[in-house]
Amino acid sequence: MLHGGFMEGDTVMVAGSAGCGKTTLALQYLVNGVKLGEPGVYVTFEEMPDQIYRDAKNLGWDLRKLEEENKFRILCTSPNLLLESEGESLLDESLHDIQPRRIVVDSLSHLAMFVKESELRREAYRLIMHLKTKGISSLLVWESPQMAGGSFSVTEVGLSFLVDCIVALKPVEIESSLRKALVVLKMRGSDHDKRLREFQITSTGIKIESAFANYEGVITGSPRKVASEKFMDLFRGAAEKRK
Amino acid sequence: MLETLLASETTGDLLVLFHRNPGLIDTLDSIARRIGRTGNAIEEDVRSLVNLGILKTKRIGRSEVLLLDRARDREVLDTIAKHLRNLEGVEKIDNTKF
Question: CA of A86: which chain B residue's CA is closest?
């Protein structure tokens, strides 16, 4: 989908509503980084690390072991501390200990609780540039509850303009069951798959499936079958009756 | 040292919190919230753990944060394990008397 993956040093935003797999995708990004020799740091504001260790283990990722090997760190803190600009930075110890090449901030939405809306874009920019200056690729998680309808805005505070890549995750209702869709909305400096693809959270992490080829309006959350597919259904139905 | 660690329920809760979440770095008030208490309620217990060296403090901007000293924590755990092994030994000797 990404024609070779995220670009080194880029800032990626993963946006989606609760329970659609943002944290799994973010952890997979870091675990894959470790496999490529790139240590990673996971910054969490709300979810406690022991839950993250447990959930990751269910996906086959032993994060405690990676921590012991100095390839991974989980930092659990408050958003305002990450934004502190005077003196020592919160990340200094981890930067020194494991020299990370990738970092995840889960979630950027929590920063909004600690800074005024008018300052959020500036503070996010400062954080992004701090990481870019150190040559660290970052993945920022954004909770977006209302990603539906005609106007598809990921954030309401203009953060989409600050990041290099946006990946949106979305639950989709098809034939009374909830499925998950993923789309790359933006990727600076590289071509990418523009289709909405289905994905599954398997026992080994996120697995991208085929595109929702026979549906339209997937982004609204309530897709319809395209006209030709409806016609095919009618045709099949008629053929069944004739039997 | 064991007396300090077993001094109160709050100290126990703090130890469990930091052992399960060794990457926790936060202010006194936020740490208190994470175990359902207030900053004032845990201040004394935190001070004892800082004095033992299990927790350390660090200044991040205008805030003072608390974090686990992983190296010192391992030392303390080894000391406790050794102490418990010794106690087991004493019990075994005592049992032979009966």
Answer: B61
**Residues of chain A with C-beta less than 8 angstroms from the C-beta of B23:** 49, 67, 73-76
Q: How far apart are CA A130 and CA B29, in angstroms?
A: 27
A27 — contact with chain B (CB < 8 Å)?
no
Helix segments in chain A, DSSP class H: 22-35, 49-58, 63-68, 79-83, 92-98, 117-133, 227-242
Residue B90 above 90 pLDDT? no
Pairwise pLDDT comparison (A207 vs A232), residue with the higher score: A207
DSSP conformational letter for A71: S
Which chain A residues have a beta carbon less than 8 Å from that of B15?
none
Burial label for A226, CB within 10 Å (0-12, 13-18, 19+), is middle
Quote the pLDDT of residue B35: 94
CB within 8 Å: B34 and A89: no
Would you state the pLDDT for residue B23? 93
Q: Are strands B55-60 and A224-225 parallel, antiparallel or unpaired?
A: unpaired
**Rounded CA gap, A26 and A106, in Å?**
8
Nearest to B25 by CA among A93, A87, A97, A123: A93
Q: What percent of chain B has pLDDT over 70?
A: 88
Structure tokens at B46: 């935190």
Closest approach of chain B CAs to the CA of A114, in angstroms?
A: 13
Under the banding of pLDDT at 50, 70 and 90, the label for residue A115 is confident
* Contact of A47 with A106, CB cutoff 8 Å: yes
Which residues of chain B are within 8 Å of residue A87 when distances are taken between CB atoms? 59-61
Smallest Cβ–Cβ distance between B61 and the set A48, A74, A85 belongs to A85
Q: Which residues of chain A have a CB within 8 Å of the CB of B59?
A: 87-88
Rounded to two decimals, the ipTM of the complex is 0.77
